[in-house]
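Pasting as-is:
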Amino acid sequence: MSLTANVSSEEDLTALRETVRSFLDAKSPMLSVREAMASVNGFDLEVWRQMAEQLGLQGLSLPEQYGGSGFGMIEQLIVFEELGRSLYSGPYFSTVALAAGLLVQCDDETAKAEYLTRIASGNLIATVAFVEADESWRLDNVVTRACLDGEQWRVSGVKPFVIDGNLAELVLVIANTVEGLSLFAVEGTAEGLSRVPLDVMDATRKQSRLKFERAPARLIGTAGRAQKWINAWLVTAAISLSGEQVGGAKRLLEISVEYAKTRQQFGRYIGSFQAIKHKCATIYLETESAGAVARYAAWTVDECMDEVALAASMAKSYCSDAFTHAAAENIQIHGGVGFTWDNDGHLFLRRAKTSEMFLGDAVYHRNLLSEYLDI
């Protein structure tokens, strides 16, 4: 399939999914994921480049004027599902869903032309530094500050949990100024920026603690005008993460059913036991429902519908629960072997638990839903 024109038909969407899945099966099987986990950077740079050069995945949903293909959120969601299915460990989510997703929302055409073009070509790894010590995703809890030093903006503060912060060549920092909430770009090599890799639950997704000590920064757009962009970005990022969660849950369903069909106890395949049937059926029901709500949320983005924020919180809350439950049930179906290091089930469980918390857990998003619905 050629990724050079907008996708719309179900046939083309299926072809897109098959193309991405074939690529990831060949370039990022679980053995490669495990090898990447043990490395410093956590991913294969050559595979990252091939994703851009052969498939154009980094620029899939970016506007054509910035070197992208101009696809919509539905197409992007499929890519995230496949990445979640394979537990891809590269900086795609941080660069595309976070950094590019936030830049697209801003009104700084100069910055967009410079950074998005490099992202689309696969020549820039970027991330967003938002959440702080209180681990809150509320904008009114940001304490990192930026101030002018002559004509140079400087950022000071600590962002303790930054995805791919150890290797990002560009860090978009959300900070407060005298004018209000603002967005800044800090180069990964900037003086005053220190990065400490963290030992986190999910080794397939690296995180770092970033400390800014009067680090030189570039103001994106106008000081004090970032809140609207950030709110819109949080919505699309949550939908993207929901897609990853759906993909992971679908893979867990496949693994669970395959094991139930081949594992024998007491002279019978365990898939014939009613309890195992119930577990597999529940995973299937929740996974299909999660896929439907995530796709609906993506559709609201493409159609510019008013309920996009509501749909995003519906997707993130339900998909978080579905993925975590699928991971836990998969381990139960496997029994004792499910807890061993050689079994991939625990890797999916680790991704499920960290994804559940990132961008707000299910409780956080259900609280948002109650605010949207005024109940």
